[in-house]
UniProtKB/TrEMBL annotation:
This is UspA domain-containing protein. Coiled coil: none annotated. It holds the Pfam family Usp. InterPro entries: Rossmann-like_a/b/a_fold, UspA.
Length: 116
């Protein structure tokens, strides 16, 4: 009996991120797998709670738009995670470990931490 896989997809406001999600849905997803949509919003230097709340809300709304893509696949299980973090991938790496993800999917673009 195979274990359920957790596929972590990085949610960003770029078209390549949506393309990466669609690729994962068509090429990786098997029945019973869980798609975890992760959005990392940048840490603010100020401790302004309203600004943090606004960034978190925008990230959640963006993740919901990605969930709409997943909802087109029958029986797709989706979870949304929105975190404050860094721009060099440490937050993504720690989330992978935390949720025990088996796969990481992200769109590569010129502002990506992997591109640098």
């Amino acid at each position: 009996m195979e274990m359920t896989r957790k596929i972590l997809v990085v949610v960003e406001e770029v078209e390549v991120a949506r393309t990466a999600l669609q690729w994962a849905l068509h090429n990786l997803l098997r029945f019973g797998d869980l798609i975890i949509l992760l959005h990392v919003f940048p840490s603010t230097r100020s401790r302004n709670k309203n600004k943090q709340r606004s960034l978190r809300l925008k990230g959640f709304q963006l993740a919901l738009s990605f969930k709409d893509i997943c909802d087109q696949v029958p029986d797709a299980k989706v979870e949304i995670v929105v975190r404050e973090g860094d721009q060099d991938g440490r937050t993504i790496a720690s989330t992978i470990s935390e949720v025990s993800a088996s796969d990481l999917v992200l769109g590569l673009h010129d502002r990506s931490f992997l591109h640098r």
